[in-house]
Amino acid sequence: MKKVYRFGKFTLNTGEQTLFAGESPIHLPTKEFEILRMLVENNGEILTKDEMMQAIWQDTFVEESNLAQYISRLRKILNADGQQFIKTFSKRGYRFSAELEVGDENLTLRRHISISVGESNRNPLRKIGEINNLAVLPFQSLSLQTDDDFLGIGITDALITQLTRTGQIIVRPTTAILRYANSAKTIIEIADELAVDAVLQGNLQRLGNRLRLTVQMFDARNETPIWAEVFNAEINDIFAVQDEIAEKIVDSLSQRLSAESRALLKNRYTENTDAYQEYLKGRFYQTKRDPQGLQKARVHFEKAIEIEPLYALAYSGIADVYELLPLMDEMAPTTAFPRAKSAILRALEIDPNLGEAHTSLGICLMNYDWNWQGAEISFRKAIELNPYYAVGHQVYATFLLRQGRITDALVELQKARSLDPLSPVINTWLAEALTYLGEYEASILLHHETIKFSPDYFLAYYHLTFTYLLNNQLEQAVETSKKAMSFSENLSLTQFACVFLHAVLGETEKAQKILENLLEQRRTKYVSAVNIASCCAALEKFDETLYWLEIGIKERDPNLTWIKIDKEFTFIRKEERFLNILSQIKLRD
User: Fold this and answer.
1) pLDDT tens column, 486-540
2) What is the three-class DSSP state of 428?
3) Superfamily assignment of 133-268 in CATH?
4) What parts of the chain have a pLDDT lower than 50?
5) Would you say 120 and 420 are in contact if contact means Cβ atoms under 8 Å apart?
6) What is the bridge-based pairing of β-strands 133-136 and 93-96?
7) pTM surpassing 0.85?
8) Which CATH class is domain 4-103?
9) Residues 6 or more apart from 528 whose CB is under 8 A from it?
10) 58 backbone φψ class: left, alpha, beta (φ>0; ψ -120 to 50)
11) Closest to 32 measured CA to CA, from 17, 49, 20, 43
């Protein structure tokens, strides 16, 4: 059984054979590690020199002085603030003594998710009245008009954007709070899950063009109201109302904003309420992250741009939709990405400092142009403009994973998670990074946490399937792959997972049948050529694998950017045709 021990600032992982002091790894030679492990596993007990030497060196003859030298070095390493964990008992042996926290990979998992950005982690010892971060819950409609659903979410999203733009207030992103629409959970429960110090709650009533907003902000520790106010306005004055609410929030938090930050608070991308409402509808449907929602979002963003041709946020929104459509088997990359890039460049022409657009540009440069240097510049620029944009850190991390820079990717994912702790996307990629590090148990635990709060997020099941396989848990992999297929509505990506699993289990006929179904689908709609190549690779179809990868080159398939590290291509990794493909996507070493 792999064990993880935490004592003082140290974490000893017997499975990984690692020792960390905080976040810093400490290199231990094999014998030193074995001595430390033996001492820690017998915490509080005196171990004789003879039994230690027999256990560590077994039949090899060594002097007591060898053991004493290793113990001396361990003492120097573990000497933290004058604290000594190892005591010598003259002529007898040694005893390790510490308050141990003992567990399994959960401790490793906590170590890997502990980095924060700025003051984004919740501080249980904060002073009264000191609020470092905030959650703005979806505004609830009290009327029967169905259009008010998107209006409530839109107002919420606008407030989050305004407050984040100041660079001085950490606000959980819209994607993190949507799950709490109509939630029966208490303020304290929500605040605990989102790790925030305060929660803003509101409702709206609309009668014709009249709008009434009731807004309250609560201290997360005891649900005590910090302030509450009612706002009445015409629907055409929605911008002014949002500005007023944002300023009230800032004032109630005693935030001393510079004149420049207060100007950013009121910065808006359109004065046209009709364009704004179309944009809000686009954002509403975009958050659903399914093919139907993405297509509806595209229509509304296009309407917003038609009404307001200088609406930078709408251009950025439509670019995000186009970049997602090929991954959902909904549009060919050669159609989607040029449209995305055109919208991105237009957004940046209108507002060069729009961080979201720089992230979108990085995705386009990476997934379609295979311009890795340009993509990294864009991702870094986006983070520079808005260090509290969780998606910026997360997308940059996937860039680093493709490059094989796993440690750097882990750091970015830790930052993203500190900003958006309940994002299924961020948590899934963090778990995947742990898998790349070989920490399968920790990865599985994090996937399970993600599935608890996002039980229908298909990518969590998809990646968990492969981690189960790597951890030799075949039965669990089978069940998880079925859920991935079901929740994704049979996307080619999750169908590949099933093909791979059938191949591992020796069920070649079942795997072949799924592959044939994918080929049949491709006759009538776009299906990723690289996902088909992955299916062929799982079945070790040499020529077919390379053929479909080469088709992917012609079609500019974004999934090509993963083939350097995808395990199914191991059997052709040294083939010249495969190396030529890597050269074309600029990933050849």
Assistant:
1) 998 889 999 999 999 999 999 999 999 999 999 999 999 999 999 999 999 999 9
2) helix
3) TolB, N-terminal domain (3.40.50.10070)
4) 1, 119-129
5) no
6) unpaired
7) no
8) mainly alpha
9) 326, 327, 329, 492, 493, 552, 557, 559
10) left
11) 17
